[in-house]
Amino acid sequence: MCNLYEYEMTPEMMASIKRHFTLVGTAYLDALRGRNSAVKVYPNREAPVIRRVDGEYRAEEMRWGFTPWKGNWLTNTRDPALKTWRDWLGAEHRCLVPVRRFAEYDDNTPKGSKVLRWFERPNGEPFFFAGLWRPWSGDRGTKAAPDVRDWRVFSFLTTEANAVVAPIHKKAMPVMLTTAADIEQWLGGSTEEALQLQKPANDDALTLIPLDDEAA
User: Which carries the bigger pLDDT value, residue 47 or residue 16?
Assistant: First the structure.
């Protein structure tokens, strides 16, 4: 159910993303330049996403969470066939969500005081969630400070948990894009081809951060 993740866009991270995923275009780099510290992203907060427009990659800030449902913003989905999602599965509404690491609540800790555990790639390299974006009009503020306007909002796909995530959070994990081929298939493939990526990451693609190291 990942409802917390972190991105970090230091110059080294930007160079790594460009190198590993062959993302090009000054607009992408300029939009992320200067983010020199890790940023935690919670539901209904702004975060960068990357989409491809006329063959170029563009980064822009969007608000995390599709339309509200039962008082919560829909931050991710495991069933893209539902009406809420299926209208936005076309290539023009797919995007990349830059991620350094993500958190899940530990199912082994007591209800009411569950502990967050963090996951990242073993080499510390960034990756992407398989994101969807859409326009949305309405209030994304608070009761005390409404903020009614036109928005661009995003969410991402989840899938079955792999052997690394399942002992902590057995319900699901985000869909991770870790190669240039993944990115091309997600952004440029047909809907059927894109949804083939909705599968657990290989077990060696992810590691659980020890509790003593999580503050680092």
Answer: 47
Q: Is the pLDDT of residue 118 over 90?
A: yes
pTM (two decimals)? 0.86
Q: Looking at the chain, which runs of residues are DSSP E strands?
A: 5-7, 39-41, 46-53, 56-64, 68-69, 72-73, 76-77, 94-99, 101-105, 116-120, 127-139, 148-159, 173-174, 176-177, 207-208
Q: Which two tokens stand for residue 29?
A: 């780099």
Amino acid at site 11: P
Encoded tokens for 100: 């350094």
Question: Cα–Cα–Cα angle for 70, 75, 79, nearest 5°?
Answer: 85
> Looking at residue 23, what is its pLDDT?
52
Measured CA to CA, the distance from residue 163 to residue 26 in angstroms comes to 38
Say what the alpha-carbon torsion angle 76, 79, 85, 87 is, to the nearest 10 degrees. 150
Report d(CA 105, CA 109) in Å as an integer. 8
- Tens digits of residue pLDDT in 43-61: 999 998 988 888 777 878 8
